[in-house]
Design a protein that fits this description.
8-stranded mixed β-sheet; alpha/beta; Cytidine Deaminase, domain 2; 158 residues; single chain
Length: 158
C-alpha cells in the first residue's frame, strides 16, 4: 500500500479538541441502507466534509466495495480511495474518516483488528462503526495518543 498525506491533515502536532460530528440526514440515510445490507457481509464507506474548532460536519458519504467480501473483515480498493479523496478535495471537502459495519451479533465498538488499524489513521480521522444487531446502531471513534475516544454525533437536515 502506498502512502498519501491529505493536505488538511499534514500537521502531526494536531491536538485533540472536543467536537461533535454533525451528520447530514442524507448521509445518515445512506449509512442506514448499508447497515441493512450488513447481515451478508461487512459494508464500508468513506465520509467527507469539513471541521473547525467545535464541529465536524459530514455532508458526503461514498459507499465502497468490501474487497474481502467477508462477514468479519473489510478492505478497500486503495487506488479508488485515493481518487475519491482527490475528487472531493477539489470540491473543498476532506476525508473525515471511514465507516464499516459489524454484522451478526457484534456490537458497534472497535474490534481488536479495528483498534490495530486505527493507529494508521489516527485523530483527526474518525471511525464510524455500526451494528444492525445491537443498540446504539452507530458509534463514532477517533484514535488519539494511544486511546480510543468516542465522538458524539447529531443529525442535520441541511
Amino acid at each position: 500500500m502506498g502512502s498519501y498525506s491529505q493536505k488538511s491533515n499534514k500537521n502531526k502536532n494536531f491536538e485533540f479538541k472536543e467536537r461533535i460530528l454533525i451528520l447530514e440526514s442524507h448521509v445518515y440515510s445512506q449509512i442506514q441502507n448499508l447497515i441493512a445490507e450488513s447481515l451478508k457481509m461487512e459494508q464500508v464507506g468513506l465520509g467527507f466534509g469539513s471541521y473547525n474548532e467545535s464541529v465536524i460536519k459530514m455532508n458526503k458519504f461514498i459507499p465502497m466495495e468490501n474487497l474481502d467480501k467477508s462477514e468479519t473483515s473489510f478492505s478497500l480498493d486503495y487506488e479508488r480511495m485515493i481518487k475519491e479523496i482527490q475528487i472531493h478535495e477539489q470540491n473543498g471537502l476532506i476525508l473525515l474518516g471511514f465507516f464499516h459495519t459489524h454484522p451478526k451479533n457484534a456490537n458497534s465498538y472497535p474490534s481488536k483488528k479495528d483498534r490495530y488499524y486505527m493507529r494508521f489513521w489516527p485523530h483527526p480521522y474518525i471511525w464510524m462503526i455500526a451494528s444492525a444487531a445491537k443498540t446504539p446502531l452507530l458509534r463514532i471513534f477517533s484514535f488519539y495518543r494511544d486511546k480510543i475516544i468516542e465522538i458524539p454525533y447529531s443529525l442535520s437536515n441541511q
